[in-house]
Write a structure and sequence with these properties.
Helices cover 45% and strands 17% of the residues. With 384 residues, the chain is an alpha/beta fold. It has 2 domains: 26-146 and 290-369, Rossmann fold (3-Layer(aba) Sandwich), CATH 3.40.50.2300; 148-275, Rossmann fold (3-Layer(aba) Sandwich). The protein is globular, with a radius of gyration of 23 Å.
Length: 384
Amino acid sequence: MNTFIRRVAGMAAGLALATGLTVASAAEPIKIGSVLSVTGPAAFLGDPELKTLQLYVEKLNKEGGLLGRPLQLIHYDDGSDANKANSFGKRLIEDDKVDIIVGGTTTGSTMSMVPLVEKAEVPFISLAGAVVIVEPVKKWVFKTPHTDRMAAEKVFEDMKKRGLTKVALLSETSGFGQSGKKETEAMAAKMGITLVANETYGAKDTDMTPQLTKIKNAPGVQAVFVFGLGQGPAVVNKNYRQLGIALPLYHAHGVASEEFIKLSGPAAEGVRLPAAALLVASKLAANDPQKPVVTEYRKAYGDRYKEDVSTFGGHAYDGLMLAVDAIKRAGATDRAKVRDAIEATKGYVGTGGRVNMSATDHMGLDLSAFRMLEVKNGDWSLVD
C-alpha cells in the first residue's frame, strides 16, 4: 500500500512539474524590438550589435528568462538606410507590438524612429553616437554610446597635451559625421583650437585623396581629426600614408574596433582615438570596476562567434542589460514603468562605463568613460 501511495505521489509530482513547465513555456514573451544596420556601409557596427543581442537573449532565456517569461528578439536590417529604419520601427510598434526597442545602429536611423516611439510611448534605447539623440531630452529615448561632443572634447584634450592647437577636420556626410562636425566646431571654439581646414567625404567614397591633399597644404596644420564610421576612415588612413602626411592622426569613436585596424593595415599605426574600455580589457588595472564586465563579454562573444569584439557590440550589450535591469526593477513590462526605471538607472557598470541617468541625462556617461587609445604594433594600447 505504501509503495502504491509513493507511486501515485511521484506521478502527481511529475504531472505538476510538467504542468509548471508547460505554463512557463507558454508564458507570453517579453518582446525586444531592434532595427540594426546589419548590411550596408554601417554593417561594421550593426553586425556585432545583432550578434550580441542574439547571444545574450539566448543566454538569458537559458537562465530562465525575465519575470518568469521568455525574451523574444524581433529584429530587422535597415541596410544602413534611415528611411527603411522608419518603416521597420513602425512595424515593430504597430504589428509586432514590442515592449521596448534596443537599436538603431546609426544616428540617421535612430532619429528617423524617434517621432514614432515618442508618439507611441515605447521605451527606446539607441546604439548610435550623436548628441542630438538625447539633447534636447526626449521622454522615451535613451542611448548607450558616448556622444560626438564627448569624443571631440577628449580628442582636443589629448591634442593640447601635445601642444597641438591648429587642426584639420575631415568629417563624413552621414548623420553621425554631420553631427560630429557641428559638435567639433563648437568644441574647438570652446577649447581654443583653430580649425585651419574643414573637409567632408561621402559614406560610400573610396578615395579621400583630394580632401587630404587640401589638408596637407593647409597653412600651419599640426594634426588631423577624422569624424566618420564604417570603412571610410580606414580608406582615409591608407590615403593619408600614401600622401606621406606625417602629422598626428586622430579618429572619433565611430571606428573603435579591431576590425578598423585590420581594414587599415599598417596605415593604422600611431592613430589615436577615444573609446570604451572594452578594446583594452586585458590592459585594465585589476581593480578597474569595468574589468570583470568587459572581460566576460569579450570571452562570451569570442567563444560564440570566433571574432574580435567591437565597442559597437558592447553598446548593444549595455542597451539590452539596461532594458533587462529596468524591467526587473519595474516588475512588469508596462511601458511607462519601464521608461521611468531606465531614467532612474544609477551605478550600472557596463562596457561603455558607469551609467547614472536622470530626467535631464538620458545617456548617463561622463568624460571619464572614454579611454584615449593608440594603435601600436597592430593593437590597441592605452595612452592614459
